[in-house]
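One-letter codes give the sequence; backbone shape is given numerically. An example follows:

. . .
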Amino acid sequence: MSSLKDQVRDWHQGVLAVARKDWDCALCLFSDIREPPAKIYFNMGCVHLMTGNLEAALQAFDQAVTKDTCMAVGFFQRGVANFRLKRFKEAVSDFQTALAQLRGNATIDYTQLGLYFKLQAWEVLYNIASAQCQAGLWAEAADTLVQAISKWPEGTQDILDSALDQVQKQVPLQLRQVPKGEVFQPPRQYLQHLEPIDFLGKAKVVASVIPGNHNSDGWPQQRSQVEEVGHRSPSSLGGHIRRALGNSLPTSGGPAAGPSEDSSGVRGAAEKDPESLVTVTVQCHFTVPLKAPRGADLSSLRTLLAQALPHQAQIGQVSYQAPGENFWIPIPTEESLQSVWRNEAVGPRGLQLRCRGAWGRPVLYQVVAQHKYSAQRPEDLDFRQGDIVDVLCEVDEAWLEGHLDGCIGIFPKCFVVPADACVEALPVLGPKPGDQH
């Protein structure tokens, strides 16, 4: 028996198969979903329409409107299938039912439900008239268009006037339907759970803030400290993370600690020579999923958040910002960090770093928006010109998946350029973007 996660993955992969016009693969994936909801049956009907299998399309749309009797767009597409099967009486009935489900509204916008399509009442009436034309009911078709013209919003007058002129000349109207390739997509929040999430990770001392803690397996001590922090204010929590990350970095006054060295040794050396300390400011921004009991109080939520953040801090992408610059350069390796220390003349503000992560997923590289992009679908990512986006996945040759300000979504690759292309004057601090896969 497939899990809900498997079904969402099949749904998502089916949508991608539709986008690349792999109809057989799409139908196979949609058919594998156990007890499909109305949206999946609708998707299957649309694929069958595109392949010309009209009887199969009709059956799929039948299932869709049986599952959801208020699905206006389902009745609309079933009318399209009946029309193409030359069952014009049934088509008129379906279009009339779709109009009734609009409940007097001019439009139903399905974008928020995952289908990039707005069902317009005038288009439904237009299709009714089109079916009436095919049935030889020219007078009825003209009356239907007059009804649409009498109460229609601005912007459609010319279309409807032209259609009425065609009908009066007994010229059939071309049918309108959902654009080819448009199908219901799974909600974005479902897609965020497809990637495996390791909440605990490998036990490791990042930075001990407990006096006398020299235990190489620092998880119990770190957790006890975290539980204490969980009852502090959010600003105090941010300060704790900033100190923990800052103390784990080498100072400019001496050699860096090797991978096998205890971080408490660095801390001890710093205490003996306070003048060797420099300010390291780390901006932290994470998207953290939490499992909390319904009705949990604020203190409990803060405790859960504090328990999740140490792992997020370890796997987040650390980046460097040179003074006076707006761009952040990823620091993926120890060599990259040491290059920063060698090239950076630490000023009054100290070293500026940033640590970001989303749902436990690594950041491949960063890109800079060359143009503003407004989301066209629920799964898209909005950004403005100049925004720096963390790239989480290369979806295909034309699309990337990224993270910005706590939101994850996809966007066109042509709207952005690699961050390195905008900071050519700065030193190269690590592998080139093509090597960070």
User: Anything to note?
Assistant: Residues 17 and 385 are 31 Å apart (CA to CA). The radius of gyration is 29 Å.
